[in-house]
């Protein structure tokens, strides 16, 4: 986690906007994987936290299978970090605290969008957004019950660095027991 924190800080300096974008892979009940980009909002010894709609495709897949993979590709640094582990939903209080820190328009949007559902048209989406804005016009926008965070507890983390002649560095950490990790260097 200390190495991740160091690389993350360097990535932030190189790309202040999207250094926290990570690919999240989930697995459906059929065994089929799917992947999409989400934003890392917090990390620490307890894991890696992102926020989403619990009724989305990823939310449904995570309800059936907690196992995930995350990938960061920091192009300015020519570094990749791969993380594997299991998700657990964060507490309601933590989801609400983060939700309430977001701009009002984003909070309204969370009520307007049934993430991953088919919609008739962009016009229909904008009409839903207007309805949500009207509904909350005179007050606070609460956190929807279907919106919140997940935390990934890592069991494997791999740090990849580009090196000349395709002889890249790969450092693979695997969590064993009592919070201890093993470290192996892998062939590129
Ligand atoms: C840069 C970037 C950041 C994104 N961040 C998030 C995010 O933090 N949470 C989220 O639910 N979707 C985020 N998305 C949208 C997802 O990639 C995806 O379209 C959405 O979550 C629906 O995925 P699903 O149908 O697999 O559930 C982001 C997309 C991009 C390109």
Structural account:
With 188 residues, this protein is α+β, with helices and mostly antiparallel strands. 28% of the residues lie in helices and 37% in strands. It is built from 5 helices and 9 strands, in the order αββββαββαααβββ. Strands 1, 2, 3, 4, 5, 6, 7, 8 and 9 form a 9-stranded antiparallel β-sheet that branches. It is elongated and about 55 Å long. The two termini are 22 Å apart. The mean pLDDT is 96.
- Let me know the number of strands: 9
CATH superfamily name?
Electron Transport, Fmn-binding Protein, Chain A
CATH level 1 class label: Mainly Beta
Looking at the structure, what is the overall shape? Answer: elongated
The third-level CATH topology is Pnp Oxidase, Chain A
Q: What is the number of helices?
A: 5
Amino-to-carboxy terminus distance? 22 Å
Order of helices and strands: HEEEEHEEHHHEEE
The helical percent reads 25-40%
Outline the low-pLDDT stretches.
none
What hetero molecules are in the model? flavin mononucleotide
User: In total, how many domains does the architecture comprise?
Assistant: 1
